[in-house]
Design a protein that fits this description.
- It is a single chain.
- With 625 residues, the chain is mainly beta.
- Among the domains are: 98 residues, no CATH class; 174 residues, no CATH class.
- The chain has four helices and 46 strands.
- Strands 29, 30, 31, 32, 33, 34, 35, 36, 38, 39, 40 and 46 form a twelve-stranded antiparallel sheet that branches.
- Strand 13 and strand 14 form a beta hairpin.
């Protein structure tokens, strides 16, 4: 790159991100698309044994689309990225469409492997191949096919990993669809099936994992572009992009042959891939992705900002991220990570450019340590129930006073919010739902256009949730308590329960048929507000062999602790709660959810779909009386 251009680019970073960041992050190479080469993307970087840096990337010459003609180009730098060699075509286009999406893997034996996709059709044939190099990419050997199934595989750049056992893992998404018979094959479908190919002989032969390939109509999630990282306990964590607001993840305990069901992770993001690797300097996981958690401005569905964060607990929680690129109109994705002795090298697509940058080790380590320090402190494990007297949910009701109709409602959960600064505490009783009805007619009791009716009562007001089939904008209503059937006469009974402290006590209470009550405490550190959500445990899972347990119950009331007391009622949400540890809870929130007819939104229906997770304190209580 011309020295003047490098100065301009580094100056731009300096102005945008400040002196500290500009000194730490250096732009080494920017390749810009042009008429002859309309797209440059999906590459990787490796340090060669003689100290040179080598990049290999997808160089499109037949257009900018994923199916356009492309080859694999290579450049090297002998001076740390200050200057680069001319472009050399490492693998000419050998596919009927293209070759693209590079992963470079340095084996423990020292040999270099070059992985890439070969596309032979627009929607039905895309497979991964590997070539070996014994001379640091001066030459590469003949290709070996990795993806054994017929169909359209997607394997992102910088995705192939070697485990501590020596096994090679290739995470792929198979996007070929078919009907239940398996005979009617559908071209490319967005709902990919995450699978793994593995090799135990350094990539010479390959096998597929045991993941079944379901028919298209059984694929409920849009799962795409998976990656894999090995955890410290030997498990493998697969992460993948989705259209559902988060990166999803699943686990393997047998080296990649079997996988758990994909679930949302803490990495909120658009439909854009993440890259996760282990930092050799600290041992922590590092993720580069488009951070939509809310710490930085983001503009859905754009793939921006591009951020970097670490996890100190193997991917369960992530510290505050460092922003690498922040242009709200930009698109930053398909990152590779390479760890040098004193810096981290990143390559990524940047709108119409492809960039290579380096980040200084000391600066990155200090910033990521600060991000980890910003995480909420783990909640102290409770030693006693969070509320001493739990509600006896089988015998508690809210009676009302109106003569024209005085309904009795069964209490289904309790919410207690406290604001120490304002010296305010309020208790809500969420009651069981019923269907909308005409009261006391001879016939025709239910409304033809029916909805769920769920009342909530506090000392000062009544909140009513009306869940119609579709969103009509009248979901939640708040009125003074005196206007709700002319007031209430609660009959709420309580008991002092026995706290269950381990799986043995939990399983004994379950099999004995004891009523179990859960209490979950969440808090807002900034305001100091605290909420305890209490509920009868309707469903609890128990693994008899491993001793694992998990609560899954709802609906409950989820508060917004960022607002003052005069807004508590209007900000209540219905949710389901799940937990399997004393210090973490996850919620599934009811909200209007679009139903689409192709690309067009046909309607919005209420559905428990939005996920929220946070540190918490959880308690299980048994009623022995």
């Amino acid at each position: 790159m011309h020295r003047a251009m490098r100065t301009i680019l580094v100056s731009a970073v300096f102005l945008a991100l400040g002196n500290d960041f500009a000194a730490a992050m250096e732009i080494l190479l920017v390749l810009k698309a042009n008429k002859e080469v309309p797209r440059i993307s999906e590459g990787d970087l490796v340090e060669l044994t003689d100290g040179r840096l080598a990049v290999v990337y997808s160089r499109f010459t037949g257009g900018a689309g994923d199916e356009s003609a492309a080859d694999l180009a290579m450049q090297t730098s002998a001076d740390g990225g200050r200057t680069w060699s001319p472009v050399r075509i490492l693998v000419p286009n050998e596919g009927k469409r293209n070759v693209m999406s590079v992963s470079l893997l340095r084996l423990k034996s020292g040999e270099l492997l070059l992985f890439y996709l070969r596309k032979d059709s627009e929607a039905t044939s895309c497979n991964l191949y590997v070539r070996r190099s014994r001379d640091e990419l001066a030459t590469v050997g003949e290709p070996t096919r990795v993806t054994l199934l017929e169909g359209y595989h997607v394997v992102n750049n910088d995705r192939v990993v070697q485990l501590s056992t020596g096994r090679l893992i290739v995470p792929a998404a198979l996007h070929t669809g078919f009907d239940a018979s398996g005979k009617q094959v559908t071209p490319f479908v967005y709902q990919g099936v995450p699978i793994v190919y593995f090799s135990d002989d350094e990539g010479r032969t390959w096998k597929k994992d045991e993941t079944p390939i379901p028919p298209t109509n059984q694929r409920k999630l849009t799962l795409q572009e998976p990656g894999v990282v090995e955890l410290t306990d030997g498990r493998l964590w697969m992460f993948m992009r989705t259209e559902h607001g988060f990166q999803y993840g699943c686990y393997s305990t047998d080296g990649g042959q079997h996988w758990s069901e994909p679930q949302p992770t803490a990495l909120a993001s658009p439909c854009s891939p993440a890259t996760v690797e282990r930092c050799p300097w600290s041992g922590q996981l590092v993720c580069v992705w488009n951070d939509y958690r809310g710490d930085h401005p983001f503009t859905p569905p754009n793939r921006t900002p591009l951020c970097l964060a670490t996890s100190g607990d193997e991917g369960r929680a992530w510290g505050k991220s460092v922003v690498l690129e922040s242009d709200p109109k930009g698109s930053f994705c398909y990152t590779s990570m390479t760890w040098g002795k004193d810096r981290l090298y990143l390559t990524y697509s940047s709108s119409n450019d492809w960039k290579v940058v380096s980040i200084a080790k000391d600066w990155l380590a200090s910033r990521l340590a600060a991000g980890q320090a910003s995480l909420p402190k783990p909640a102290e494990v409770p030693q006693e129930p969070l509320i001493a007297e739990a509600v006896d949910y089988g015998r508690s009701f809210i009676n009302t006073k109106a003569r024209w109709n005085s309904p009795r409602f069964w209490v289904e959960s309790r919410l207690r919010i406290s604001d120490p600064a304002a010296k305010t505490t309020r208790e809500y009783f969420q009651c069981g739902l019923c269907k909308s009805e005409y009261t006391f007619p001879a016939r025709g009791m239910f409304h033809p256009d029916n909805y769920d009716f769920l009342p909530v009562f506090s000392q000062v007001d009544c909140v009513v949730f009306r869940r119609h089939l579709t969103d009509r904008g009248k979901y939640l209503e708040v009125k003074p308590i005196a206007q709700a059937w002319e007031g209430t006469a609660p009959v709420v009974r309580h008991f002092r329960g026995r706290m269950l402290r381990n799986v043995e006590e939990i399983s004994k209470a379950m099999t004995a048929g004891k009523q179990l009550v859960g209490q979950t405490e969440i808090r807002d550190e900034k305001s100091g507000r605290v909420a305890v959500i209490e509920f009868p445990i309707k469903t609890i899972n128990w693994h008899r062999d491993t001793g694992q347990w998990q609560v899954d119950t709802g609906p409950v009331l989820l508060p917004d602790l960022t607002v003052p007391a005069d807004q508590w009622s209007s900000k209540l949400r219905l949710a389901f709660v799940a937990f399997n540890a004393p210090d973490w809870a996850e919620f599934l929130i009811d909200e209007p959810t679009p139903i689409r007819d192709g690309e067009k939104e046909a309607a919005k229906v209420f559905h428990y779909i939005r996920q929220f997770a946070c540190p918490a304190r959880n308690v299980l209580v048994a009623q022995d009386e």
